[in-house]
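A favour, since you know our structure tokens better than I do. It will help me judge whether the discrete encoding reads sensibly. The space below this message is yours for that.
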Amino acid sequence: MPVLLNARTDTYLFRDPSASDDDLLAETIDRGRAYVQAGADGLFVPGIADQAAIAAICKAVTVPVNLMLGAEPVDLDELLRLGVRRLTCGPAFQLQAQQQLQDTIASLPAPRQA
């Protein structure tokens, strides 16, 4: 049975606040290339939104790049043009549904005292 190994790097999701954008991009590309050399079939980079960085990563690694959708709308055609080949929903939809449920509960009138 075939297996797809999609290596994950959280350089953007858990960004080091002291890292520059250039350092972050370089670290992500270095990790991606190392994962490919170790046998990864894909690279998952959650938390990234900068289009120039996305394009640079897609060009620098030789495997499909996977991103995680957030709550904000995305242009799927633009992501495809940049080189993204997979999208993951992650927890965005569940978090939105949970927030809507909490908002609905909070808006209910308080029960009357008997």
The first strand starts at residue 6 and ends at 8. The helical segments are 21-37, 51-60, 76-82, 92-107. The domain at 6-107 is CATH 3.20.20.60 (TIM Barrel).
